[in-house]
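#structure-requests
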Amino acid sequence: MATHASLYKLIDPDLLRTLMKRTGSGASVSVRELATLAHIPRSTIGALLTGAQQSVPEASAHAIVEAIGVDLLILFTPIGRSVTLAAVPDAATA
């Protein structure tokens, strides 16, 4: 049975990069560390930073902001449509 997940678009890759330099705790976090903390592939974080990928499933967006220590709507905006999870890459398939 297919389930649906909302997508969240990264507002600005430069803002993500800046917040990675100084997280909510005041520490910096590398791409590798953020990926590990958020339980998502490093390639996803890298693609968000370069603009090659502009959106992630809701769960990934929440995991990223929780790892950085900011509110969801600081970094992401809901796209407003749902896609089947099978069509969205996630940590289980990457």
